[in-house]
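hi!! sorry for the late reply, been swamped w classes. u asked for the two structures so here they r. pasted raw, havent cleaned anything up. first the sequence of the first protein and right below it the tokens
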Amino acid sequence: MQVTTARATTTTDGTRAGTARGALLAALACVLVGGSFTANSVLGRYPWAGGQFLRYALACLLLVPFAGRDAVPRLRALDPRQWVRLALLAGIGMVGFNLVVIAAERGAEPAVPGVFVGCAPVVVAVLVPLLDGRRPRRAVLLGASLVAVGAFTVQGWGRTDGSGIAFSLCALGGEAGFAILASPVLRPLGPRLLSATVCAVAAVEAALAGAVLDGRAWLRRPDATEAAALLWQAAVVTVVGFVCWYMGMQRLGTERATLFSGLIPVAAAGTAPLVGTGSYGPAQAAGSALVGTGVALGSGALRPSRSAAAVEDDASDQRRVVVHRAVPAAGQPHQPGARNDRLGPDALAAHEEPVPGAPGHGHRHARQIVGEPDGAARPQGRVEPGGLHERERLGDHGLR
């Protein structure tokens, strides 16, 4: 029987490159969010729900052309549980998060909800492994703790009352939910389509919330300054920020990507002096150093080079491996090759998984096949599609 076997391999250089790209994308997304506080300051008098509706609706319209030609089939393939998850992601991590932050600031100084939100990396570093049935990683947990301490140092602590603390805890839940709820739907949709979909859902939820809470006054025409701020939030913070965030999460995994949320208060503190709304002093510098150290430690930048044995534990490695079991080349008789023994009556037929064809040099995602030493077989029959679906099947076979 002619067989083709591709061995799952990885390289240190490939792992480092994927981690570096993921880190840059996640960092850019969080810096954009932190720098957007200036835009938020000019929207203080604009109806909250109306602003959210305009921001997410415009972002959705901008993202639709980049969602992909197969966007509709992929959305139709989602099951009801995944749609519920998308609704919760938009409601808890986007619309609800912004609502509770505003509510928290009515009874507390802005630093208070900021400190609670800065603890999100610790929550995610603990919850995500537990939900997956594994132990939290020590390096990620230590890095998340440093990020939380650094965020607290940057922002300090302000005056608050009981309602401020309660709503700040809700904000922490929203920030953690934004990362945890997105992970299972990121695989089938991808960063662009996921961003467009949650923005559409969030726009609908914001409109419903505004109609219930504010009645007819939930939406009005913005003036020139408000329109510019809403356009910045939609086009830059939401479109660019969301896509970069989810692309970074693809490469780093949920736990390590959430570490970069500590850069949000750092970016806010760094841009505040530019608009005269704050200062950057020794405390902010020390906190920024702690955040940077925590991110570097938890994301793996300070760890030594790893061997191929570490591929199981790295989300950025999983997307680079395509495993093809020993399968007969399509269209060929089951005849033994020069180095193959004829299968006897005890062949494990229950474990055979026929495929339409063996991948070869024409595979359209060839860069994701890291090693294929037995490359004598050429592409025959139909070539198996690449992309996210292979990664889902890898998870089913134990590669995590």
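now the second protein. again sequence first, tokens right under
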Amino acid sequence: MKRIAIAGGGYVGLANAVMLARDHDVTVLDIDTARVAAINNRTSPIADPGIEAHLRNHPLRLRATSDARQAYAGVDYVIVATPTNYDPETDRFDTDSVKTVAHDVTALCPNALIVIKSTVPVGFTDSLKRELRTDNIVFSPEFLREGSALHDSLQPSRIVVGEHSARGRELADLLLAASTHRDAPVLLTGNTEAEAIKLFANTFLAMRVAFFNELDTYAAINALDTRQIIDGVCLDPRIGDHYNNPSFGYGGYCLPKDTRQLLANYCHVPQNLIRAIVDANTTRKDFIADDILRRKPRVVGIHRLVMKAGSDNFRSSSVQGVMKRLKARGVEVVVHEPLLHVPAFFNSEVIGDLAEFKRRSEVIVSNRLNADLADVAEKVYSRDLFGVDR
């Protein structure tokens, strides 16, 4: 049994904490005292059915604190899962929170292995090792989906550890043993290669979203049946029928920032495709907004701001980009989002009552179709063909 600290109680941190606390002593460190209290009370501060059920029903060796000294005392591993938001001014991830954790751990518990799961620029981990003059830092990317983070931790598609060594294998074995998918493939790489794996994987997913969105744009402009085209294209087994549902663009916490960070890493490398993926997302939102405006609505309702079903995250959701474009063209925009308990969102009225929202809205914009809108289907604007987040 190991002693493990996890810095950050968000999706990644809490999913790893719950998974590992089934067999190890785990302490979550978070600056949000309300989040700390929730974890200690065995309630989930984030929307994830698996995490909620495990906190409620499973015996876990888990506690949370806001005291770094308490969290790091005598631990074997520190997993870093703090946010690395994209900073448009520097054209890079803001990695300050990761650096702070690494500095603290190096000072308080220098023998602990620091495992970075926060997404970072290519080359960051080895640079940080040089800066802190320590070899005890490894990058191990996460591949979790919002709303199913614990499920994806327990049943990993792959485990990647950025170190070719017995220590790297031991870390991989620790993660594999905590999972319920003991046959998951394990890959030991260099830290820099592991960082690149994370960014290229997410950029490929963004490219796939962008491809099917541009297919849909073409079909819409030329009055073709998008679904027939997608069904036919996806019969090719090399392409497959996954991740092919048109949307308003890729969004959420990971894909927008990861594609931009990868593009920044290409600053001295010839490329065309990575820039096109980033630009395609902007073009898609432009098309969606223009397509809505062709209906000449005076009031447009935005039904749900969350990126996907089962998530409580609005960050960088694609519908917000559409919303901003409509407002810039002088259209009144109202919002229905049950997770919002404020009178306005970016100066748009929030309407809590669904019936009133339907009545007030001349066009209802919904990234994914919802049964709650079935009675006003003639008002609904969506590019959703398959009714799933895929």
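hope this helps!! also noticed smth abt the second:
The longest helix spans residues 191-221.
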